Amino acid sequence: MTYHPKSEFIAVMMERGFLADCTDYQGLDEAMVNGTVTAYIGYDATAQSLHVGHLLNIMMLRWLQKSGHRPITLMGGGTTKVGDPSFRSDERPLLGPEQIQANIHGMQQVFAKYLSYGDGASDALMLNNAEWLDDLNYLEFLRDIGRHFSVNRMLSFESVKSRLDREQSLSFLEFNYMILQAYDFLELNRRYGCVLQMGGSDQWGNIVNGIDLTRRVLDNEIYGLTSPLLTTSDGRKMGKSQGGAIWLNGDMLSPYEFWQFWRNTTDADVGRFLKLYTELPVEECERLGALAGSEINAAKVILANEVTTLLHGPEAASAAEATAREVFEKGGVGDDLPTLTLTAADLGDGMSIVQALVKSGLAKSGKDAKRLISENGAKIDDKPLTDAGLMLDAAALASPVKLSAGKKRHALVQLEG
């Protein structure tokens, strides 16, 4: 693509690798040069925390605000009751209102770290689509909105087509999801002057639907912009690790474990991730990403520090780096390792080492823990752990015990008090 943007935001998106596609580069670019643009990304409240997979789009909203425009974080208090069928092979479990509200509260805490909310021209807005979806009159909605949607066209969208091609059930409830998401864009345009929806490239069909609907109903010019769906250089989905999702809330994943995730980035991904997940100048990201041999490890530490500082603050990043040095370079324990604290009642007559590996998060299951031990991947106090039948009792836990899975994952097990 040879388009040369005039606006700071589009230039940053293109230069740093955020841009997959846009419905009208020139139109959006000119709108951004001519005034403050309001843009939104929607987040369904399906979990108590956002995870690393969301971080790319959160950074897009942050850059939008830094370049003088107004971001909207739209909580899907209404759409979560339906569930997005995009690229899923099954129906999502439906959540009750209390759980949805609790999830929204947990997610809002993360957004506040990246965006500045308030009443100023470029201050972010936190909205909930339950505001307009909860009180919809079904017959009016069908008549005023439903008539603009072609079922033939909806069936052609990849997210729907892939389910039907595999002969997997797609409920009418889920089929309605794309109409509701399109309606969100219409209402945000009508109520808040929002002219841009952003999202991952899997949302392209939903975004285009919203643009078509808004043009038909309000005759307004609006835009869509998507980011690439990120995979790591070894083909894994971004944000997945052996231990499960990399959560952004500190009470669901410690700042140290978050820092460690970034420190463990594959060499080939360092430069790209520095551009996407930090605010270091592009030239510096490219210089660090091009380092070879052991020098690339210094770049990974910079990546981990920068990303952790944005989310958890500079002190958490420094503490995580200090712990990592203590654990890896000096064979010590460190103050910041994930810790499993057991009561005397938990321990009883003793806890098996297999159970300790699972409870401390170093193994997913007993089977996984036994495999780790049999393949010489587990250590206890930095010594090889070879006996899957080992029991930890009060005497063994007189001082904290350090467990390790592979070279990079560690946890402490200690007795309360």
TrEMBL record:
- Which GO CC terms are listed, alphabetically? cytosol
Motif 'KMSKS' region, residue range(s) on this chain: 237-241
User: Which stretches are annotated as coiled coil?
Assistant: none
Which intervals of this chain are the motif 'HIGH' region?
Answer: 45-54
Query: Record-annotated residues binding L-tyrosine?
Result: 40, 177, 181
Q: Does the keyword Aminoacyl-tRNA synthetase apply?
A: yes
Recorded hits in CDD domains, A to Z, give: TyrRS_core (cd00805)
- Enzyme Commission number(s) from the entry: 6.1.1.1
Q: What does this protein do?
A: Catalyzes the attachment of tyrosine to tRNA(Tyr) in a two-step reaction: tyrosine is first activated by ATP to form Tyr-AMP and then transferred to the acceptor end of tRNA(Tyr).
What protein does this entry describe?
Tyrosine--tRNA ligase
Give the organism the record lists.
Tritonibacter litoralis
Query: Which lineage ranks, top first, belong to the organism behind this chain?
Result: Bacteria, Pseudomonadati, Pseudomonadota, Alphaproteobacteria, Rhodobacterales
Q: Which gene carries the instructions for this protein?
A: tyrS
